[in-house]
Amino acid sequence: MRGTLYTAISPLQPSLDSYWLAVHVLAAIIATGGFTVATALTALHLHRSRDATAREHPRSPTLGAVAARLPSGIALERLARQTITFAFPV
């Protein structure tokens, strides 16, 4: 006797058996990646703007070194906005 969670494998419904399923999944993967990159850029922008207001990091001297290597806050914000502008319609 099989458990109640077992469901037999069956072919896809005719409405799902289309190349549009692959197009939709690919678009979802690209959009998710774009939003992930935009989130990382926004976090870097916040870190950079925090570093601009408080130049010293007494708890971690490496944070100042990392922030010094980042592009300007305006460039990070612009890049994040452009990435979201690309990913949203996808």
Give the helix/strand layout.
Elements: H1 19-53, H2 61-69, H3 73-87
Structure, explained:
With 90 residues, this protein is mainly α. The chain is built from 3 helices and no strands. Helix 1 runs antiparallel to helix 3 (73-87). The chain starts with 18 loop residues before the first helix and ends with a helix. The mean pLDDT is 82.
The pLDDT mean sits at: 82
Radius of gyration: 22 Å
> How would you describe the oligomerization state of the chains in this entry?
single chain
**Order of H and E elements:** HHH
Q: What overall form do the CA principal axes indicate?
A: elongated
Secondary structure class reads: mainly alpha
CA distance, first residue to last residue: 46 Å
Q: Major β-sheet, in short?
A: none
- Helix amount: 55-70%
How many strand units?
A: 0
Helix count, DSSP H or I runs of 4 or more residues = 3
Percent of residues in beta strands: under 5%
Poorly predicted ranges (pLDDT <50, ≥5 residues)? none
Please describe the structure with a list of short key phrases separated by commas or semicolons.
3 helices, elongated
A few lines on this structure:
The chain has 90 residues and is an all-alpha fold. The chain has helices spanning 19-53, 61-69, 73-87.
